[in-house]
Specification:
This protein is of the alpha/beta class and about 210 residues long. It has a single domain, classed as Vaccinia Virus protein VP39 (Rossmann fold, 3-Layer(aba) Sandwich), CATH 3.40.50.150. The chain has six helices and seven strands, in the order H-H-E-E-H-E-E-H-E-H-H-E-E. Strands 3-2-1-4-5-7-6 form a seven-stranded mixed sheet. Helix 3 links the parallel strand 2 and strand 3. The longest helix has 15 residues. The protein binds S-adenosylmethionine. The site of S-adenosylmethionine has 18 residues, from loops.
């Protein structure tokens, strides 16, 4: 598939003020229902996510059934990160302000990002950096539902349907060129009455 192109205004948001204000107060809540959370853990097991793992745009829960050997969690709120029982290390960083992390090249076996990719205004830079910090063959797994903070989601996502959102994330992978062909899956049945769960993932090439 060719790289995706994103029209003018795609990455605009209703609330374009600094994210640090929006995320200043800790939200010790879950953002999807228990069944969707269980689907995330099941997918991580199925894909054998273990070893040194980075949870990008994380909070106080990381949804693994069993914690990986070493889990680094990067997010916006220090109190949320401090409350994460699986975290071995935490980093507060605004990826919309500074999309490149300071982690060493090839330092993680896998990177995950749960119900958050819709908030990235510079996703191609973030996906390129994720490829940099992943070891060759490492997976980047993005999961999402249809719930969000609407003022903070990029317009291209806000006005897309579920299938288009899967293609948006696949497009982020294809446009950064360091990945094998992304896989997209609906992890909950089409007639599911709770929060739906979608996943898009790819393996770093090279
Ligand atoms: C809906 S919550 C999801 C949290 C967690 N991943 C989960 O599964 O429960 C969105 C998360 O994205 C993070 N986030 C939002 N904007 C961010 C940014 N600009 N840079 C880094 N993290 C961000 C916030 O810290 C917040 O924890």
């Amino acid at each position: 598939m060719p790289p995706a192109s994103f029209p003018r205004g795609f990455f605009d948001r209703d609330d374009d003020t600094a994210d640090r204000s929006f995320y200043a107060a800790p939200r010790l809540v879950t953002h999807i229902d228990d069944h969707a959370i269980a689907c995330v853990g099941e997918l991580y097991d199925e894909l054998a996510i273990h070893g040194e793992v980075l949870d990008l745009m994380g909070s106080w829960v990381s949804h693994f059934r069993r914690p990986p050997q070493r889990l680094t969690v990067l997010g916006m709120n220090a109190a949320e990160l401090a409350a994460n029982p699986m975290a071995s290390a935490t980093v507060v960083q605004d990826l919309n302000d500074e999309p490149a992390t300071t982690f060493a090249d090839r330092s993680f076996d896998a990177v995950v990002c749960c119900v958050s990719v819709d908030y990235l205004v510079r996703p191609l830079e973030v996906f390129a950096d994720v490829a940099r910090v992943l070891r060759p063959g490492g997976l980047f797994v993005c999961t999402f539902s249809n719930r969000l903070f609407p003022t903070k989601a990029v317009h291209g996502w806000l006005y897309a349907d579920d299938e288009q959102r899967c293609q948006i994330v696949a497009g982020y992978f294809r446009s950064t060129g360091c990945w094998d062909e992304p896989r997209t899956q609906r992890r909950t049945p089409p007639d599911h009455r709770g929060d739906p769960l979608f996943a898009v993932w790819a393996r770093r090439t090279g």
